Each structure stands twice: as structure tokens, then as C-alpha cells.
Amino acid sequence: MRDYIIKRLFYTVIIAWGVLTATFVLLRIGPGSPADKYLANMSARGAENISQVIASIEARYGLNKPIYKQYQEYVVNLVRGDWGWSTGTSMPVMKLLRRHWVYSFQLIILSTVFAVFLGVALGVYAAVKQRTLADYLASFFSFLGISIPNFWLGIMLILVFSVKLGWFKTYYDTGLPLFSLANLKALVLPVATLGTGMLAGYSRYARSATLENLRLDFVTAARAKGLPERVVILKHVFRNALLPIVTIIMFDLGSVVFGGAYLTEIIFGIPGLGRISFNAVFADDYAVVVSVTLIGAMIVLLTNLVTDIVYTYLDPRVRYT
Asked: Which of 176, 220, 263, 264 is the most buried (most CB within 10 A)?
């Protein structure tokens, strides 16, 4: 296992380097530059000598150097802990990330907890009550949750519960203490938006895995011994059905960072990594875009590694070489 972990960490570094390089190069060769917003302000004021402004800004941020030289300097600074300067917010990128990561973290954690507990419980219950009204209703809502896009669901929740009923604010209030009931209330709609799709997926996986284990011989033997049905389901069936469910949950933790969480932050005005990345793209804030992309890639890669390690403890039959 130790050799496998070392090998996977080596691959993680290589893949992260590839993501970093591709993102850096694509941003540099693409249209636009950090000087654009300054040029817009200068044009609005009727200023002249715009070419001098461009040269000054490019020299300030090193954009006048060859792209390979820019890349070399960026990687060296990155290794030293200097992630660059955010031209959109006029502060170091590391300081910007430290200020905003907690908003993404709380949204992802709460949404995952919400989806896992309700989704797995609903899936197991539907499997135990197979071909009953409860099973049909659970399956219907699961398919509905998978089919509804997160961004559309978020907008509908705002229209109904914020605009029409007035139960929640239409935007996230950053002035609330993080560990407070008021902050928890402010996250109800974002968590429901991000967690509904995951909940539906976990419900389907849990139902399928539970049904598969209910048909196995060891379950029949456990029932033949006279064990209560509750013990058979929780101790024998659910424990074995948990293996594929854990794998799906761990993989989702990585994908949700890149996908649904970023969209949810934009819809509800949550100033997390997704929101600052969205703003950075339109402001041609290279350093922020590269840094957030690299963080997302590292989360996905490390989550996959942790998933493989956890799987060996849940199922001793699994061995990696």
C-alpha cells in the first residue's frame, strides 16, 4: 500500500502540473488581458496615449516577456508560496483565497451531509419496500432530482421561497457569523439546490446496491438463523451495500467542486472560490483563474486517492500493487 500511495502521489503531481501548464498557456494565448479594464476606464475619460498605458501595465505584470519566461517565473514563485497578484482585486492571490475558501467549504460540506444521509436512507428504505407505493414514490423523486439542472432549481427556489413567500433572503449575507443559526438559515436554499441532485443519485445507488445484497445467500442464511429483520438489513445488507456507495460519494466530492458548487455560488451570491473564479474570468485575472483551477484539480486527484485507500479498509479483499 505504501508503494502504491507514493506512486499515486507522483502521478498526482504530474497531472496537476499538466493542468497548471494547460490553463496558463490557454489564458495567455487567448483574447483579452488584464489591461483591458484599464483601457476601458481610460477610453471613458477620453484619455490619450493608450499605447503607453498598455505598455506600462504589461511591464508591471510581466506580460511583455515571452510566454515561456512568464511560465518559468510563475512556476518558481508558485513553489515558493507566491501564487501571484490578483489584478481584479489588487491583493495577493493567496490572501484572496484564504478570505473566500471557507464559503465554498461550508456549502460543499453541508450539501454533502444533507445528500448522503437523506439519499442513502431513502434508497435503502425503497429497496426494503420494493414494488410498494413508497418505492415508486422514492424512484419518481430520485429521477426528478437527477433530471432537474441545479441552476434552474436554484432560481425557482429563490422565486418561490424568497420572492413570493419571503422566508429567505434572495442573496447570501456575508455579514453573518459563520457558526450561527442565521448563517445556517441563509444556506438552506443553496444547500437544497446543490444537494438535491446528489441526493437523488445516492438514493438510486443505495437502492440498487441494497437490492443486490438482499438476494445473496448470506442474507438468506442470516434470516434462517432467526435474526430480526432490522439486524439483517443494518448489520449485514447495509454494511456490504456501503462499499459502492462510499466510492460514488468520494468521487462526487471532487466533481461537485468544479461543477454544481460554483454555479450555486453564482446564483446565490456566495463569495466562494466559484464566485471569485467567475469574476476573474471576465476580468482576465490570470493568477486567480490558474490558482482556483489548480486547487480544484488537486481536490479531485487527492479525493480519488483517499477513495482507493478507504476502499481497502472497507473491503479487505481489495489490494493495490
From this structure: 264
CA dist., res. 263 & res. 270, Å (int): 10
Distance CA 285, CA 275 (A): 13
pLDDT tens-digit series, residues 283-300: 778 888 888 888 888 888
Residues forming a β-bridge with 86 = 91
**Spatial contact of 304 and 97, defined as CB atoms under 8 Å apart:** no
Q: List the one residue out of 69, 73, 63 whose CA is nearest residue 38.
A: 63
- Is-contact 307 251, C-beta < 8 A? yes
Supply the pTM of this predicted model: 0.80
Bridge partners (DSSP) of residue 117 are none
In the chain the first and final C-alpha atoms are separated, in Å, by 7
Map out the domains of the chain as residue ranges: 94-314
Q: List pLDDT tens digits, range 230-270.
A: 888 887 788 778 877 877 777 777 666 556 688 888 889 89
H helix and E strand count, the chain: 15, 2
Question: What confidence tens digit (pLDDT) does each residue in 180-195 have?
Answer: 898 899 999 999 998 8
Q: Which CATH architecture has domain 94-314?
A: Orthogonal Bundle (1.10)
CA 134/CA 114 separation, integer angstroms? 20
